[in-house]
Design brief:
heterodimer; A: 110 residues; mainly beta; 56% strand; B: 113 residues; globular
């Protein structure tokens, strides 16, 4: 069964708004990663947060991790049309065995 | 200068055929992976090689056989293709087995008719 589950499955917002995506998982993890997939392309690594971290920033990205709730969120601020993509969380329980969720399909409307 | 490349990008074939997908990375990474993404976008790891040695072998039918001739290449051979094999197959690499970030290829869309 899939470890990570993203919520919502699809999100459509206006350019300039903030986008928040959530990820829940089931077992303890070493770290959690977020990836972006543009249509017809491979996945691109965005950010990694370790199990002992609560929040991490990278440019317009903000990731939080709540290990007690087994959940993470990805916030994209000031969204742009180029942010339109699918976003996946991936949990790492060790041995480089990433387990991906189904992804959130984000659409930024101009 | 593509970091992780795959060929072919599209592959359409009939049931029962045997096909191969090739993957090459020019990042100097030690570890490579094969993933399968189904029609519902679920992405699942199939195999992982570190320095040409198989380290992850998920529950995948024996019809799937990875081969790593050197640490820059990881090919996937599929025998007796079935309709359920239709998916997008992604190759990925990471610096080493302890590295976290994985670099993905563009994917190969396999359609079995």
């Amino acid at each position: 069964s899939q470890q990570g589950e993203e919520d919502p499955q699809a999100l459509s917002i206006q350019e300039g708004e903030n986008a928040t995506m959530n990820c829940s998982y089931k077992t303890s993890i070493n770290n959690l990663q977020w990836y972006r997939q543009n249509s017809g392309r491979g996945l691109v690594h965005l950010i990694l947060i370790r199990s002992n971290e609560r929040e991490k920033h990278s440019g317009r990205l903000r990731v939080t991790l709540d290990t007690s709730k087994k959940s993470s969120s990805l916030l994209i601020t000031a969204s742009r049309a180029a942010d339109t993509a699918s976003y996946f969380c991936a949990t790492d329980r060790g041995a480089q065995k990433l387990v991906f969720g189904q992804g959130t399909r984000l659409t930024i409307n101009p | 200068d593509t970091a992780v490349s795959q060929t072919p990008k599209y592959l359409v074939t009939q049931m029962g055929n045997d096909k191969s997908i090739k993957c090459e990375q020019n990042l100097g990474h030690d570890t490579m992976y094969w993933y399968k993404q189904d029609s519902k976008k679920f992405l699942k790891i199939m195999f992982s090689y570190n320095n040409k040695e198989l380290i992850i072998n998920e529950t995948v039918p024996n019809r799937f056989s990875p081969k790593s001739p050197d640490k820059a290449h990881l090919n996937l051979h599929i025998n007796s293709l079935e309709l359920g094999d239709s998916a997008v197959y992604f190759c990925a690499s990471s610096q080493d087995f302890a590295a976290y970030e994985q670099y993905f290829g563009p994917g190969t869309r396999l359609t079995v008719t």
